[in-house]
């Protein structure tokens, strides 16, 4: 080979470039000047020169000879021959050019025609609001939804009843057409949407008027959904098969129900357990008493022993919420809190003063942060 163009300059690398640097430079230029992506008049010639340069510089023996004598002695053919063996896998270039749009070399495809109509239905999302009582007992909801269903007239064929539906002669029902052509990288094929059937794979002589040849119709439906006891705020209930219908025999989507549980001012929820505060007077805590406690199923009596301190918690087992999997109910925790009256009549004040005096309690003296305040 004899050339007046420096091969290193063609690839834009230094003479000391490593094999990896040469390979990266070649890939970059090959993508830029490939005739399939570059329509400039000299792109093809430029691409040939780049390939020729890489053929020499990727081969250690040829590169050594070129570095010494500026030629490889006619060893290069200018074609593709063995020079591509140093490049590795040509799929690196094909992936860039075709990126799924071309199938590589002709004959490489499986030849299996896909079912163009087969498409699973999409899911439908809805929201539902529940109370704690609904969580306790479960609830049956009736939801109004809109969903696409298979056309009742054409049954999804997209054609008027009695009319013909034939396989597209252009794509043979695949919905795609393939063109094979010879390029500088070899024989390649490209696949595009069929221009005759627009990807449907069939030709319809008389399109269905009810669904406008879509095969689907929008319907308003009322769906009953059973919400089980024990659900929590934020749970998603999946109702299988109640979403949009699928095409070509594909399954329908699901109905996804986003659940939210409304707060109850009487209770705080912790999983299956509930917590409630019960205001109790000081005499009841000191002397003991039997009081009524509100639960989800009604009032229950609670015995408070004498001398109970404020913020003590009592446990009512089985009075909480059911667990979603087992159905076993949690506990209701009752926290007693001393109730201080805001207004006192004369008799009440007299009794409290008497109680304070009998207990040896006098007016508290001023204190500093670290003890009693010193006298002036």
Description of the molecule:
This protein is of the alpha+beta class and 376 residues long. Helix content is 21%, strand content 32%. It has three domains: 7-99, Helix Hairpins (Orthogonal Bundle); 124-261, Ribbon (Chaperone, DNAj Protein, Chain A), CATH 2.10.230.10; 268-339, HSP40/DNAj peptide-binding domain (Sandwich). The chain has helices spanning 7-11, 19-33, 43-57, 60-69, 91-98, 132-137, 282-287, 346-358; strands at 102-105, 124-130, 139-150, 165-167, 176-183, 186-193, 202-204, 216-227, 236-239, 255-261, 268-270, 273-281, 289-295, 298-304, 313-322, 329-339, 367-368, 371-372. The chain starts with 6 loop residues before the first helix and ends with a strand.
Topology:
Elements: H1 7-11, H2 19-33, H3 43-57, H4 60-69, H5 91-98, E1 102-105, E2 124-130, H6 132-137, E3 139-150, E4 165-167, E5 176-183, E6 186-193, E7 202-204, E8 216-227, E9 236-239, E10 255-261, E11 268-270, E12 273-281, H7 282-287, E13 289-295, E14 298-304, E15 313-322, E16 329-339, H8 346-358, E17 367-368, E18 371-372
């Amino acid at each position: 080979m004899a050339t007046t163009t420096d091969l290193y300059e063609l690839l834009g690398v230094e003479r000391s470039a490593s094999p990896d640097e040469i390979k990266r430079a070649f890939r970059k230029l090959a993508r830029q000047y490939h005739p399939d992506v570059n329509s400039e008049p000299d792109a093809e010639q430029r691409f040939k020169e780049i390939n020729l340069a890489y053929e020499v510089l990727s081969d250690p023996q040829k590169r050594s000879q070129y570095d010494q004598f500026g030629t490889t002695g006619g060893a290069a053919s200018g074609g593709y021959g063995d020079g591509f063996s140093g490049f590795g896998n040509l799929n690196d270039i094909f992936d860039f050019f075709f990126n799924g749009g071309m199938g590589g070399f002709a004959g490489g495809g499986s030849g299996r025609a896909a079912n163009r109509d087969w498409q699973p239905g999409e899911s439908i999302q809805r929201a539902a609001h529940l109370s704690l009582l609904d969580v306790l007992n479960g609830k049956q909801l009736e939801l109004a939804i809109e969903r696409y269903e298979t056309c009742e007239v054409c049954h999804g064929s997209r054609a008027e009843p009695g009319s013909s539906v034939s396989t597209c002669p252009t794509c043979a029902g695949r919905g795609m057409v393939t063109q094979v052509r010879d390029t500088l990288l070899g024989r390649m094929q490209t696949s595009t949407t069929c221009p005759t059937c627009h990807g449907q794979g069939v030709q319809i002589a008389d399109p269905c008027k009810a669904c406008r040849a879509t095969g689907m119709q929008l319907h308003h439906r009322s769906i009953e959904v059973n919400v089980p006891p024990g659900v929590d705020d934020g749970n998603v209930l999946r109702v299988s098969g109640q979403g949009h219908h699928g095409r070509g025999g594909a399954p329908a989507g699901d109905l996804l129900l986003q659940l939210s549980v409304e707060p109850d001012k009487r209770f705080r929820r912790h999983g299956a357990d509930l917590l409630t505060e019960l205001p109790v007077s000081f005499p009841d805590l000191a002397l003991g008493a039997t009081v009524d406690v509100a639960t989800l199923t009604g009032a229950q009596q609670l015995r408070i022993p004498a001398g109970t301190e404020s913020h003590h918690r009592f446990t009512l087992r089985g009075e909480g919420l059911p667990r979603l999997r087992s159905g076993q109910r949690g506990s209701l925790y009752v926290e007693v809190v001393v109730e201080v009256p805001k207004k006192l009549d004369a008799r009440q004040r007299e009794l409290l003063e008497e109680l304070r005096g009998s207990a040896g309690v006098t007016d508290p003296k001023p204190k500093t942060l670290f003890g009693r305040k010193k006298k002036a």
